[in-house]
Amino acid sequence: MDPDAADDEFCMTSLMHASENGHVDVVQLLLEAGAEKDLRDMDGRTALMAAAYDGHAQVVQLLLEAGAQKDLSDNLGNTALILAACSDHAPVVQLLLDARAQTDLINADGNTALVDAALNGHARVVQLFLEVDAQNDLCDGLTLAELLEATKVPRFSGETC
Predict the structure, then answer these.
(1) 18-35 b/e (C-beta count within 10 Å ≥ 16 → b)
(2) Are 107 and 77 in contact, with CB atoms under 8 Å apart?
């Protein structure tokens, strides 16, 4: 059996399905069977992107440990980090930051992961980026401080709640 066979209209492999659904044991078995980690579906998404978008931290960790490329982007320019940030999955964002995923990559909307998190009001995710001193990129001419004020995301002061 070929673990990389795409079995549906979206060109998703078994590893992509297992990753998207958070099936840690299945992901582990597929990786041990030699499944290719960085194959893409019809939207250009990899298993890592699917797990990141759906917030499956254990799967993300397994894929990173197996050598999945963390900075690939899908057809819309979204990386695993951008997908996790815009979906408010702080534990996944932390894993990707710890793995040194690039924070300055932009998607088709011209946004970095930090900007997407701020635009969506994901305060904890924004704090994670500020803790690692991620580049405070501009969005539509706004500084990050102006963007945070406009979206009412509290600025990280270095204190914890």
Answers:
(1) bbbebbbebbeebbeeeb
(2) yes
CA gap 102, 58 in Å, rounded: 20
pLDDT tens sequence across 111-125: 999 989 988 999 999
Q: Kindly list the distances between the CA atom of residue 74 and the CA atoms of 53, 71, 77, 126, in Å, as whole numbers in the listed order.
A: 12, 10, 5, 22
Q: What is the DSSP letter of 105?
A: -
Give the rounded distance of the alpha carbon of 82 from its chain centre. Answer: 5
Q: 14-151 in CATH: which number?
A: 1.25.40.20
First vs last Cα of the chain: how many Å apart?
Answer: 51
- 36-40, 96-100, 135-139: the lowest-pLDDT one: 135-139
The pTM of the full predicted model, rounded to 2 decimals, is 0.83
What burial class does residue 136 get, using C-beta atoms within 10 Å of its C-beta: 0-12 exposed, 13-18 middle, 19+ buried? middle
Q: What tokens does 69 get?
A: 């490329």
Nearest CA-CA partner of 81 in 155, 10, 146, 135: 135
pLDDT the model gives residue 159: 38
